[in-house]
Amino acid sequence: MLLFILIGGVVGLLFGGLAGAVLGAVAGGALSHLLLNVFFARGLEAVRTQFLDSTFAVMGAVCKADGQVTDDEIRVAEQFFARLSLSGEQRRSAMAAFNRGAADDFDLDAELARVRAVARRNQPLLQLFLQVQLSAVAADGIVHADEHALLVRIARGLGLSEPDVERLEAMLRGTSGAHAGGGAATGPRLEDAYATLGVEPDAGDAEVKKAYRRLMSKHHPDKLASRGMPESMRSVAEEKTREIRKAYDTIRAHRE
Length: 256
What we know:
0% strand, mainly alpha
């Protein structure tokens, strides 16, 4: 930006004296700001396009993990198309990505590395990606042991960890009332609420509140959108903040 201001000032000085220098510097600054906005917008759109494409490619690989893609799994993908309000062209692109991921020669690890690169290792954005894959795996409300193992592999490929998977699974149980590995619960469990916030049951009230506020700030949909989250995924991000809030409310109610 400073370079454009200097160039504008010098050109203005040559053709208009001191007043021209001032006007040239102002014009140079405005041009620099405009160009930066254009390049940033283009870069952000490229991130969003890659993020969405990889989301469905990895989903295809996940559905193919047991050897074949079933009609039920295709319906799950199509439900995501509707949930994300994808346009006709976006749906065609998403299905093409899904089929690419389901192909025998698909390189899952390379795709995950690509996601990690475009997300610039932004953990909340990568966790959102993992959340979508978990939702696809657990469309029936249950996360089986082999599905958990696959999610851990995906998490590690994104630069995340197994505890990240476990927190999302706890959040899923709070939403659906299902337990990982099968079985059912009557509602959100206190231990899942603590796991969702990433704190121990013996954590003090101040620590719990701090964890809650930190998570709400990190996973705010507007903040994720500024880092490259496709606008179509806003509902998924909003769902996560609702579950974080629900976990916090569950803990507070228990402590009253």
